[in-house]
Specification:
Layout (H helix, E strand, L loop, with lengths): L2 H16 L11 H7 L6 E5 L5 H8 L3 E6 L2 H13 L4 E5 L2 H11 L3 E7 L7 H11 L1 E12 L18 H5 L4 E10 L9 E9 L10
Parallel strand pairs: 1-2, 1-4, 2-3, 4-5
Antiparallel strand pairs: 5-7, 6-7
Bound molecules: S-adenosylmethionine (SAM).
């Protein structure tokens, strides 16, 4: 994302977070907790971590967490909450695609990538999903939850193109779908409505050229 667009996004979210001492609820996403609980802890990246409810929960479970977000206000809250709880979470104030491109160039990969209620436009969504999938180790997991199109006017952004359908998540490059379903109400950040939830795993062979 060009720097001027990133600064506008950062300022917009900083203003939104500054409106309340805590904008989103503190509990982790229920679907994330359900899917991740059986896994051994590893490295995780929380993309658009906000105030960090999912990052903090993951860190509490023993995951080594990197939290990326545009908003300095949100990341400041996350860092304070982590310090209060004696947890360690790396915070990065950057655009998600810029961060993922740099991680890829550096050869950094993660065992888990989380995208919770990130609603870019129709061009940005596949870009972020592909980059998140590419950041995973072979066998690493991708978790996505977002407001479903049927929630238009009830929850999430007011533009239909920013809301998810199951088709948007069915064919993320390199990802085998383990679960893709609609869930209601309580996995939402702030309002009732319907969510789409993807739990997927990166192919073992993606990006690896077979020996001839
Ligand atoms: C609705 S909040 C969700 C926060 C958190 N994932 C949760 O579930 O509580 C969306 C967050 O994504 C961040 N965000 C959206 N687009 C971003 C981008 N392109 N780069 C970095 N952060 C972004 C915003 O700053 C905001 O904190």
């Amino acid at each position: 994302m060009p720097a001027d667009q990133f600064h506008a996004l950062r300022d917009q979210w900083d203003r939104r977070y500054a409106e309340a001492p805590q904008l989103f609820r503190a509990e982790p996403d229920e679907s994330l907790a359900e899917f991740v609980a059986p896994l051994p802890p590893g490295t995780a990246v929380d993309l658009g971590a906000g105030e960090g409810r999912n990052s903090l929960w993951l860190a509490r479970q023993g995951w080594d967490v990197t939290a990326v977000d545009a908003s300095a206000v949100a990341l400041g809250r996350l860092a304070e909450a982590a310090a209060r709880s004696g947890l360690s979470v790396r915070t990065v104030g950057e655009d998600l695609v810029t961060f993922l491109a740099a991680a890829r160039d550096a050869g950094d990969t993660f065992d888990l990538a989380v995208l919770a209620y990130i609603h870019p436009d129709a061009h940005g969504r596949p870009e972020i999903l592909s980059a998140a999938a590419a950041s995973l180790t072979a066998g690493g997991h991708l978790f996505v939850v977002g407001h479903h199109l049927s929630s238009l006017g009830v929850a999430g952004p007011p533009q239909a193109e920013r809301l998810y359908t199951e088709d948007d998540l069915r064919r993320v490059p390199g990802i085998d779908v383990l679960s893709l379903e609609l869930r209601h109400g309580d996995s939402d950040v702030s309002a009732p409505g319907t969510d789409v939830v993807l739990w997927g795993r990166r192919h073992g062979s993606v990006g690896v050229t077979p020996a001839s």
